[in-house]
Design goal:
The complex is a heterodimer of chains A (312) and B (337).
Chain A: H1 2-18, H2 22-31, H3 39-68, H4 72-81, H5 83-116, H6 122-134, H7 137-148, H8 155-160, H9 169-180, H10 182-195, H11 198-205, H12 210-239, H13 242-248, H14 258-267, H15 271-303, H16 305-311
Chain B: H1 2-17, E1 28-34, H2 39-57, E2 61-67, H3 70-78, E3 85-87, H4 92-99, H5 113-116, E4 119-128, E5 148-151, H6 157-174, H7 179-195, E6 200-201, H8 204-212, E7 219-223, H9 224-234, E8 239-242, E9 246-252, E10 254-256, H10 263-272, H11 276-284, E11 288-289, H12 292-297, E12 306-308, H13 310-314, H14 316-325, H15 330-336
Parallel strand pairs in B: 1-2, 1-3, 5-6, 5-7, 9-12
Antiparallel strand pairs in B: 3-10, 4-7, 4-8, 4-9, 4-11
Helix pairs in contact in B: 2-11, 3-4, 6-7
The chains are: A mainly alpha (312), B alpha/beta (337).
């Protein structure tokens, strides 16, 4: 996931750096005999890529919906409006609603600090931001159990004050925040670095305050990248399984998120219902994909030199 | 700037955590933390108890369920999962709550009838329809090339019983008088058996889905109730249950978690498990009930099988725990090999 995010960001950054609109460059590449591949090479590559795509991405997606509807729409909707499923939806939405805004604030401030300022320990901070990507989600969950669990470092203090973190909603929210930590920052850092500090410096010279510069110069320049990060962050927050599974306690109706609810239903031989709930998550993925494509398109459009010239 | 932001995030997170403190509900809520394959049972027991409790006291009670590999579940309770009752499949998973944190009273076995175990089950084999591999007894499971599905004995009582049943079978094979040889033979026997296990799932239900849904393995070794559920109800006639010549009696112990303030309802819930009404539900779910009258009613469901217990053949749970399942114990040694 990280690789994808980074490559997209650097890809858009390249357009800015080279100053060539992507479409015209694309045409040159195809037209030149030196860079054009023989038709059979092109078609073979296309067939392999599309075949792989169909087998590993489309078929599972198709299977989820087929299995979900195997016993008809009645069973499908019954599985979705069942109290435990509704409570899982509520919890998933709540966790995302807390984790995403917090990571938004964190991501923007971290990216801003890293891209626009020089300070000691900058590399260390970048490494820290990447930590949730490199740590297994299960380990992430166990960390919280070790810290906040009844036998953990702060467990007895929280126990004495009747505050529950692990095996309750706060633990799930914390775990979600942890695993979605890098998404927004990682999206913004390369983008902001590519844009450089020129515009901010100009704004400062013209008398803008720090906040004014941030709101009117920095933020508008990265808004599509930011939205892209938020969408990815949200998708992961709602889909997270490993870390949440460790801290959840699996109390149905209370601490089950949608992915955990799917597992429980599946383990109870309730396959139609499991796939019905899974189809919700698949639907979320499709919506995410559509939004992502739209945002990417807008991002490229905003960053291409023509539109920038029009804007100024 | 950044530091301030981080501080802000940290404090916001803590503030968010605060409202989640337990508010005393108008009605009692009990959390039953249980092992993996008891979910269907308690789904039926819970409403029965709720109506019994309502009729008796006029109070409503809601019972929440949490299921997983039994030792993993015990670990979660130790780490703070707020169980009111725990219903496990082996006593070590309750004993550990006595030892760590004093969550359960040391005399928990004496507080309820039958050593606080409302039902027993035993370890049997589930094979694919028609038994293509001709599996009849424990000895067949060590055949080279056979794939045996067993849940992980480290995290699941179900897997532990399988290991111990195989061990007990091997001891019996050598003969009671021959202790030294028995140990050696049992060790080789169990090593061969576990060498045939391609995947160790965390809990009994995970092992079942590996065998039935993913189609891995020639035989699933699991509890009688789980095997019967598969063979007779959800398996769609694709499986047969095989009873070995001898197996282990797996008593399912239950206990109240004392620390919680729900002692009265929690105790009543566990006592209810021994009542004829609950025993009937238990038998319907293919667990062997304690109540003689109920057992008689469902006798056709439970073919006679010779069983031994951990206490009478293997020297009790404490010894078993130390020699077999402690870190570096015999189980670890045979798995590493």
């Amino acid at each position: 996931m990280a690789g994808v995010t980074n490559s997209v960001a650097s890809h858009t950054a390249n357009h800015v750096a080279s100053g060539v609109p992507s479409s015209s460059r694309h045409r040159d590449y195809q037209a030149s005999p030196a860079t054009r591949e023989a038709p059979w090479v092109r078609y073979t590559l296309l067939t392999i890529a599309l075949g792989f795509f169909t087998l590993f991405l489309l078929m599972p997606l198709f299977a989820v919906f087929t299995e979900a509807l195997r016993k008809g729409w009645g069973v499908y909707f019954a599985a979705l409006v069942e109290p435990d499923a509704l409570s899982a939806m509520r919890l998933t939405l709540l966790a995302a609603a807390i984790a995403v805004p917090l990571n938004l604030v964190f991501g923007v401030s971290a990216a801003w600090a890293i891209a626009k300022f020089e300070f000691r320990g900058k590399q260390f901070l970048i490494t820290l931001i990447d930590l949730p990507f490199s740590v297994s989600p299960v380990v992430a969950g166990l960390i919280y159990v070790l810290v906040f669990g009844a036998q953990g470092w702060f467990g007895s203090w929280f126990g004495d004050h009747d505050i529950r973190i692990i095996f309750a909603v706060p633990g799930i929210v914390l775990a979600t925040i942890f695993v979605t930590f890098p998404f927004i920052a990682r999206e913004l850092i390369p983008l902001m670095e590519a844009q450089g500090r020129d515009e901010e410096e100009a704004a400062t010279v013209l008398g803008a305050s720090g906040w004014q510069t941030f709101w009117r110069v920095t933020l508008p320049n990265v808004k599509w990248g930011l939205l892209y990060g938020v969408i990815l962050c949200n998708a992961r927050a709602m889909g997270e399984f490993g870390a949440v599974s460790v801290v959840s306690g699996h109390i149905r109706g209370l601490t089950n998120t949608l992915p955990l609810h799917v597992e429980i239903l599946y383990n109870e031989y309730n396959f139609a219902a499991a796939f019905a709930v899974a189809s919700l998550l698949a639907l979320l993925a499709l919506i995410t994909l559509a939004l992502k494509t739209y945002v990417e398109w807008r991002q490229t459009a905003t960053l291409s030199p023509e539109s920038r010239e029009q804007a100024t | 700037m950044l530091n301030n932001r981080l501080l802000l995030i940290a404090s916001t997170t803590l503030m968010l955590a605060a409202p989640a403190t337990r508010t005393s509900a108008a009605e009692t809520t009990l959390l039953n933390v249980s092992y993996d394959v008891s979910r269907e049972l308690y789904k039926d027991i819970n409403p029965a108890f709720a109506s019994y409790w309502k009729a008796k006291t006029g109070d409503s009670v809601t019972i929440n369920q949490s299921h997983g590999g039994s030792s993993k579940q015990a670990g979660a309770v130790i780490a703070g999962l707020e169980a009111d009752v725990i219903t496990m499949n082996q006593s070590p998973d309750i004993d550990i709550l006595v030892e760590r944190g004093g969550l359960v009273a040391a005399d928990w076995k004496k507080r309820l009838p039958y050593n606080a175990a409302p039902y027993t089950t035993t370890t049997v084999f589930l094979v694919r329809k028609g038994n293509p591999q001709g599996i009849k007894d424990w000895g067949d499971l060590t055949r080279p090339g056979l794939q045996v599905i067993v849940p992980n004995p480290k995290t699941s009582g179900n897997g532990r019983y399988t290991y111990l049943a195989a061990w007990g079978y091997a001891l019996q094979k050598v003969g009671a008088g021959n202790t030294a040889n028995g140990e050696k033979f049992a060790r080789e026997f169990v090593t061969k058996l576990f060498a045939n296990v391609p995947v160790l799932d965390g809990g009994g239900r995970g092992a079942t889905t590996t065998f039935t849904q993913r189609g891995i393995g020639d035989v699933l070794v699991t509890f009688e109730n789980e095997a019967a559920l598969l063979a007779e109800e959800v398996g769609g006639g694709q499986f047969d249950v095989i009873y070995p010549s001898v197996s282990i009696e797996a008593a399912a112990p239950v206990a109240v978690v004392d620390k919680r303030g729900t002692r009265k309802a929690a105790t009543a819930y566990l006592e209810f498990l021994f009542s004829p009404a609950a025993q009937d539900i238990i038998a319907k779910h293919h667990f062997r009930p304690r109540d003689p009258a109920v057992l008689k009613k469902y006798v056709s469901q439970f073919p006679p099988i010779k069983t031994f217990t951990v206490e009478d053949r293997l020297g009790g749970w404490k010894a078993v725990q130390q020699t077999h399942f402690a870190d570096g114990g015999i189980y670890d040694q045979i798995i590493v090999r």
